């Protein structure tokens, strides 16, 4: 029955699009209604029109067939909050106020938003879903940022859960928390209010923004929607990896839940389009659909591999590869948007503010990194394009900072992680969409050019939480300069112990460098929680002067050089950087001892230096 409903809805949409496709490029609708549907963590390959073979999305596939399918559209960032900030402010993450996910960071009064500009231009504005840029009563409160209507969740962590007893809503101009039925899928309240907003404003110009939560975080769908992906015995049709529970309830078939969530969203997109037709405003409305960033690996750590969520793209959410930032984008509007077009134009989330304002007959007046792509959407000659696009993102708990520039077919990635030397990767996306072959050594001139664009595009963040300029520029200690306790060059002697205080020696080996990341695991033969390592030997000193030594470790680390305690950090914690200095003479063999213990959680340890 559910399959039949999907087929009928998709057929209606195809008919709706084909009726108007001959007129698309011949007339321009004055000040169209704008609907922007933003999925949450939906991958580039999660829709049938983008290559998905297991998850059913007939409505969105029909939209792509009767509108424009964009193949090179980029989200604003690789995670939620900064991606939404770029949309609202028209600034990329090198200039935006919010550049990552962080607690209690909200838009300021000085951050003028797309919703405020459209509101001031006479549009009725409604938002339905996850805001993530300011809670009620803060400077980023939706009611203070140009929204006339809102139903959803201001807090992106609260938005992780689909069965709740309350929801946020603008009532009488104030964002309030109201009670709802906790046995009902809360996403459905959001869709119902979005549909009602369209009905209520059918005779006005409106902007409806639907930053829905599907398919982010908790993987769960109502029973009636899940049936499509169950066999006759009620079992999942997929090769499941059951979720044992943790942040969310245990679930025996998370893959079926994930697929059902996406198909449910697809069906609700169909409800919106059918309503536009019923109200006879479909030819005066432009509908766009995209995602805030790429898909992740889900509960199992293998969901993306199973569904090919990000299609041919490398990487997932939170990474700087295409799978983290390139997303599906579909534009549909039988009165305005050309039908059956596939566009490879490179454009981004921060282009939507100037584009939507241009469609609305106004200007996005705040400073912006975006370009209006109104002409591309309406079938006219697009004159202005990006010379290059820029992204940056830092992960505080890894002390990791990433920058990306794409110019034409070339893409450069710069990564600086704690005390490790910076690294560069260069890819030709035209020939290598999967970013499999690093060409940085073959084309140093392109690396230099794109690196200069990175430096040009980055402005020091206002907030320290997004500022990674403190990461030190260090050098790796060459393995040839390391000697084990037997006096042999090539590394230090490493003694690996079970227990956090050198209780039981498990093995001894020579390690050519001290750069280890075990994440939630541990070295072979050691327990994941509670081990220690002692490295000893000597270093060949190449010049006389003051040497700065650096460690980066998750949990405790101590360093002695020539029997002097240079770094003393014997406490459990997340990754921290510590440094110490000592004067050394050229030609000497400086004695060295490094101790590390891992207590709980992630495990990593690094050692580097800065020569005089």
Going by CATH, the homologous superfamily of the largest domain would be Alkaline Phosphatase, subunit A
Major sheet attributes: 11 strands, mixed
Ends: how far apart?
74 Å
What is the number of strand segments? 26
Q: What name does CATH use for the topology of the largest domain?
A: Alkaline Phosphatase, subunit A
Class from helix and strand fractions: alpha+beta
> What is the percentage of strand-forming residues?
25-35%
Mean pLDDT: 94
Helix content, binned percent: 10-25%
Residue runs with pLDDT of under 50 for 5 or more positions: 18-26
Supply the CATH class of the largest domain. Answer: Alpha Beta
The quaternary structure here is single chain
Detail the topology: elements first, then pairings.
Blueprint: H1 2-20, E1 33-39, H2 58-65, E2 68-74, H3 80-89, H4 114-120, E3 124-130, E4 149-153, E5 166-171, E6 174-179, H5 186-200, E7 206-210, H6 223-226, H7 254-278, E8 285-291, H8 303-307, H9 322-325, E9 326-332, E10 341-343, E11 347-348, H10 352-359, H11 374-378, E12 389-395, E13 400-407, E14 410-417, E15 423-428, H12 444-457, E16 482-483, E17 492-498, E18 504-511, E19 515-519, E20 531-540, E21 545-554, E22 556-561, E23 564-569, E24 575-584, E25 589-598, E26 603-610
Describe this structure in words.
By secondary structure, the chain is of the alpha+beta class. The chain folds into 3 domains: 384 residues, Alkaline Phosphatase, subunit A; 75 residues, Arylsulfatase, C-terminal domain, CATH 3.30.1120; 132 residues, Jelly Rolls. It is built from 12 helices and 26 strands. The strands form 4 sheets. Strands 1, 2, 3, 4, 5, 6, 7, 8, 9, 10 and 11 form an 11-stranded mixed beta sheet that branches. A hairpin with a 4-residue loop joins strand 12 and strand 13. About 1% of the residues have low confidence.
């Amino acid at each position: 029955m559910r399959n039949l409903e999907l087929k009928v809805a998709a057929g209606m949409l195809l008919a709706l699009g084909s009726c108007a496709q001959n007129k698309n490029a011949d007339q321009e609708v004055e000040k169209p209604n704008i609907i922007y549907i933003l999925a949450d963590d939906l991958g580039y390959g999660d829709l049938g029109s983008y290559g998905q073979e297991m998850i059913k999305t007939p409505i969105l596939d029909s939209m792509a067939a009767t509108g424009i399918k964009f193949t090179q559209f980029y989200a604003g960032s690789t995670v939620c909050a900064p991606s939404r900030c770029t949309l609202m402010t028209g600034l990329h993450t090198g200039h935006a106020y919010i550049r990552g996910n962080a607690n209690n960071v909200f838009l300021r009064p000085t951050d003028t938003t797309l919703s405020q500009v459209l509101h001031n231009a006479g549009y009725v504005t409604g938002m339905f879903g996850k805001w993530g840029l300011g809670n009620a009563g803060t400077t980023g409160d939706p009611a203070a940022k140009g929204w006339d209507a809102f139903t959803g969740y201001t807090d992106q962590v609260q938005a992780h859960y689909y069965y709740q007893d309350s929801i946020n809503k603008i009532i009488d101009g104030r964002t309030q928390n109201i009670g709802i039925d906790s046995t009902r899928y809360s996403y459905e309240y959001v869709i119902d209010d979005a549909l009602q907003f369209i009905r209520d404003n059918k005779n006005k110009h409106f902007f409806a923004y639907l930053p829905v939560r599907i398919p982010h975080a908790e993987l769960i769908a109502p029973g009636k929607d899940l049936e499509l992906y169950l066999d006759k015995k009620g079992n999942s049709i997929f090769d499941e990896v059951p979720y044992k529970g943790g942040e969310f309830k245990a679930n025996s078939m998370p893959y079926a839940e994930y697929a059902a969530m996406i198909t449910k969203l697809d069906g609700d997109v169909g409800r919106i389009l059918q309503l536009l037709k019923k109200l006879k405003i479909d030819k005066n409305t432009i509908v766009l659909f995209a995602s805030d960033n790429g898909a992740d690996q889900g509960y199992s750590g293998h969901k993306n591999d199973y569904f090919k969520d990000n299609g041919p793209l490398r990487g997932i959410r939170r990474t700087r590869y295409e799978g983290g930032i390139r997303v599906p984008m579909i534009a549909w509007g039988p009165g305005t948007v050309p039908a059956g077009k596939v566009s490879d134009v490179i454009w981004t989330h921060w282009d939507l503010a100037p584009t939507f304002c241009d469609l609305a007959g106004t200007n996005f007046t705040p400073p912006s990194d975006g370009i209006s792509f109104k002409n591309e959407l309406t079938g006219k000659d697009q004159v202005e394009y990006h010379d290059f696009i820029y992204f940056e993102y830092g992960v505080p708990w890894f002390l990791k900072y990433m920058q990306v520039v794409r110019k034409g077919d070339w893409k450069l990635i710069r990564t600086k992680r704690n005390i490790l030397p910076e690294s560069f990767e260069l890819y030709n996306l035209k020939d290598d969409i999967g970013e499999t072959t690093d060409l940085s050594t073959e084309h140093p001139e392109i690396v230099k050019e794109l690196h200069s664009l990175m430096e040009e595009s980055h402005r020091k963040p206002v907030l320290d939480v997004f500022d990674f300029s403190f990461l030190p520029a260090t050098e790796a200690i060459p393995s040839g300069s390391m000697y084990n306790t037997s006096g042999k060059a090539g590394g230090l002697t490493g003694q690996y112990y079970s227990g956090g205080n050198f209780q039981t020696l498990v093995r001894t080996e020579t390690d050519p460098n001290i750069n280890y990341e075990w994440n939630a695991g541990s070295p072979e033969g050691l327990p994941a929680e509670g081990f220690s390592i002692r490295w000893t030997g000597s270093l060949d000193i190449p010049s006389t002067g003051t040497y700065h030594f650096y460690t980066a470790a998750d949990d405790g680390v101590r360093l002695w050089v020539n029997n002097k305690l240079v770094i003393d950090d014997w406490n459990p914690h997340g990754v921290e950087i510590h440094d110490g200095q000592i004067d050394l003479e050229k030609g000497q063999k400086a004695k060295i001892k490094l101790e590390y213990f891992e207590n709980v959680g992630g495990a990593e340890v690094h050692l580097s230096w800065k020569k005089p």
